[in-house]
Write a structure and sequence with these properties.
The structure is a homodimer. The first copy, chain A, is mainly α. Helices cover 72% and strands 0% of the residues of chain A. Chain A has one domain: Cytochrome c/b562 (Four Helix Bundle (Hemerythrin (Met), subunit A), Up-down Bundle).
């Protein structure tokens, strides 16, 4: 079996298992958890954005560390957008479009995961120009999802 | 694409004040970030604790995934316990002992990181007994720190 096919099967199995394990999580807990991921993505992406903008000195070690953290964080929010959280009654900027256009939302999420993983890979080389270009691609993936699925801030 | 174009895109995507990432994070932001880590450690350790306690069926794939996430998360909270957050005026269970006994706090944090990393390593083999034993060791590391440094819940 090819690696990609195996990976897909494992991902499928994981998704089902994780879904079952989370079946009892309360909607307000799911919202808190997904917001926690966004908070931490901001913590670790903010400094990289500043570097890409030339507003902070480039630091390859920080980029590598943060990209590794983000590579994990970018996979954490999605199961928090369970349909049970649609009318949860706690403060959230999540728009109904998330559940009205699930395929588009899933695609936007996958795009973030992919761009962040590319950043992680590029960060290993330490090539500053390539890293900064990829930081921009990650920023666009953040913005692409926020544009359609997050209430304007 | 030119660097300046990238910078504009990143800034747009993030929707944050340009200088925000440069300045020292505000104490209330640090508290929010470290609490976000605790929330996510709970999300990914909870199911493992349930497995070790026999309250959920053992699932090696979930253990591997969660242990990988936790291996990253366990390194994220510590810079959030900056002395500037000692009297921040927002709700927090952090006790003054954190800043009164910094060496002991640092040791407790390192112990968590080490036990979680061991769990990550053990989870790769999938040996159920060894994994469950190590889940217990992680739980003790959580509790060891909470016992001395977190307000009783």
């Amino acid at each position: 079996m090819k690696r990609s096919g195996l990976a897909a099967l494992v991902a499928l199995a994981l998704g089902i298992a994780a879904g079952a394990a989370l079946a009892q999580a309360k909607p307000e807990v799911l919202v808190k958890q997904r917001q926690a991921v966004m908070t931490l993505q901001g913590k670790y992406f903010g400094p990289l954005a500043a570097m890409a903008q030339g507003k902070a000195p480039y630091n390859a070690d920080v980029v590598r560390r943060n990209a590794g953290f983000l590579d994990n964080l970018s996979r954490m929010p999605w199961d928090g957008f369970d349909p049970s959280t649609k009318d949860v009654g706690v403060k959230t900027a999540a728009l109904p479009a998330i559940w009205e256009q699930p395929d588009k939302f899933k695609e936007a999420g996958s795009r973030l995961e992919n761009e962040v993983h590319k950043l992680y890979e590029v960060s290993q080389s330490g090539d500053e120009g390539a890293v900064k270009t990829q930081i921009g691609a990650v920023g666009k993936a953040c913005g692409g999802c926020h544009e359609s699925f997050r209430q304007k801030q």
